[in-house]
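Holo prediction — S-adenosylmethionine.
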Amino acid sequence: MDKIKLLLGDAINELKKIEENSIDLIIADPPYNLSKNYKATNDNMEFDEFINFSRSWLSESKRVLKPGGTIYVFMGMRLISYTHMIMEKELGLEFQNWITWHYTQGLGKKKNFSSRHDDILMFTKPGAKPTFNLDDIRVPQKYYRSINNMRGANPGNVWQFSHVHYSQSSRQPHPTQKPEGVMERMILSSSNENEVVLDPFSGSGTTVFVAKHTNRKAIGIDIEPSFIQETRERLDEQFNGFDSIDERMLRVPNDLNKKEIRKEYFKNHIEWFLKNHEKSLDSFIKEFIKKYDLKIDQDEREYIINISKKYNVKTKSKKKNVENHSISLF
Ligand SMILES: C[S@@+](CC[C@H](N)C(=O)[O-])C[C@H]1O[C@@H](n2cnc3c(N)ncnc32)[C@H](O)[C@@H]1O
């Protein structure tokens, strides 16, 4: 198949045309039935209609998923328990996780508590061992300890990523664009390179964009022509790192006291945790230098500068390179 396929149409109809057991990973971010204006649809069904719609697209999704394949489903808190019931009890999918996506900004309510999370169900299709690439999605440890796995820790099931802000260049016109970092974690953990990722409600194309830049194949479906066009344009944009990151990825562990360990850690951190997040290299390096400033000798400084150069690290001013940076910080 083509590396990226965009299909304009209704998710259920388009899923019906896809061969059974052919998809490795599904990421579905359907309408939450909250009356959002998605142009072609108004996201406002009667309860029974919504449940039947969910049942139909989830059942088609199960059919196209390979045995052992994973499906992630975003849903608002008022309807997620029904989605869970359909997936587990009616369709016999295997429950893996209930993930909370915690965001720090959002609408301020006056009558009760403001919403600060969306939830994501993670299920797998029975019949084969699911893929779970833990090493590809670990987060840095807080401390260097010989008992700690310095490859990093499991990120857990509460994921903190901010919404894509209107001022960010990656912000699309779509009303409910999700952060790329959330999709990145799902794709890296639950699929391998060259496998097929499907998003039946692809919107602005976040899933297909992340799939493209993590070397997966992808199929995106959306019923609104302008969102498909928005995705096409997004896919043509130059890639310079994903638009969001789990803040823990920037964490510099304490107690990296031995020079050789520190040097190795510095290089590993960039390659493991900041891959595809070039925009965050600068703050990580600054933080590292700040924390270990008094311990670093000339030789180690040069090592850090050389690695930083290799990754073309720029300071925020964009004019200074790491050597200028070293003047102020060393
Ligand atoms: C929550 S949004 C997806 C946002 C997307 N994850 C992103 O990051 O941009 C849901 C999308 O489902 C689409 N949609 C609604 N009903 C649909 C249907 N029956 N078939 C396919 N797409 C549909 C809407 O046009 C909307 O773009």
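READOUT: The first helix runs from residue 11 to 16.
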